[in-house]
Amino acid sequence: MMLKIENVTHHYRGFEALKNINCELSPGIYGLLGPNGAGKTTLLRILVDVIAPSKGRVLYNHRDISALGERYRDVLGYLPQEFHGYRNFTAEEFLKYVANLKGLDRQTAASRVEQLLDMVGLTEVRKKKLKGFSGGMKRRIGIAQALLNDPEILILDEPTAGLDPSERIRLRGILSKLSKNKIIILSTHIVSDIEYVADEVLLLKKGELIQKATPSALLGQLENQVWRLRIQEEELEKYSTNYAVSNVHQLGNDIELRIISEEKPNESAVNVEPRMEDIYVYYFGTQKVEL
Ligand SMILES: Nc1ncnc2c1ncn2[C@@H]1O[C@H](COP(=O)(O)OP(=O)(O)OP(=O)(O)O)[C@@H](O)[C@H]1O
Questions:
Q1: I need a labelling partner for 277 at 20 to 30 A (CA). Which of 44, 93, 95, 109 fits?
Q2: Residues 182-191: tens digit of each pLDDT
Q3: Residue to probe by mutation, ligand 1, list 42, 202, 203, most atoms within 8 Å of CB
Q4: Which residues sit with their C-beta closer than 6 Å to ligand 1?
């Protein structure tokens, strides 16, 4: 199974949101990482055939998805960025309703709904209406509805938005179990979401795919370039102007900085293991560093 993105460019009224994206995806988990406005949602909406690219095409097993139509949708599961479900449906009713739309027979639907409610931890509230759900619960029901047809391709736009830390961990577990024989693409601007689950990370910056690599290959790029050092508070301005700073930590009157630099930034600096947060800062920069 293969999904191929070929020369995909997308314009919104003259604004180029995606610039000539090329990439091939085989089964595995892909983390699409980029700051707000990088083009993640646009790319995902093209991959689920909700919008057509201005240029280029997407191929599923060598066939253009726009020509496959319904046959492509049959193998697709999608959690949009804005997902609310139907307020007056209970969790169970909603999933059964979507199962019906996806063409599952009653018996398959009933067992699948039960299995998915359990998987996302919503069995206890299955008789509750969605309008009473928290943001995290809505996200989880959204993930469950995307999985109803046991899709080969699962596309999750910010699946962890609104989830608390334990829900995030649960989601990682769900995704890792699913990954065999599926192409799973999840978008996020939160590094820790993908650090542990992604087989490959796609870095999107201002509409361009700037990296496609395994987390360890990305981390390897910053080998011997991440430093921890202590400075005085008044030196902060100088360091944050001259270096990419990935963490600032106040320690009494001193400040402990984590910075990315090819050269040792000062005598006291100690080399430390790169983390995905360093990768993010290296490629996307940070807001102005302040205490
Ligand atoms: N319908 C639209 N009309 C005009 N411009 C749009 C439209 N949708 C998105 N854009 C612009 O295209 C760019 C990419 O948007 P997109 O939503 O794909 O980014 P994103 O990486 O998903 O961002 P976020 O993390 O904030 O969701 C942004 O500059 C956005 O303002």
A1: 44
A2: 999 999 888 8
A3: 42
A4: 12, 15, 17, 34, 36-42, 189
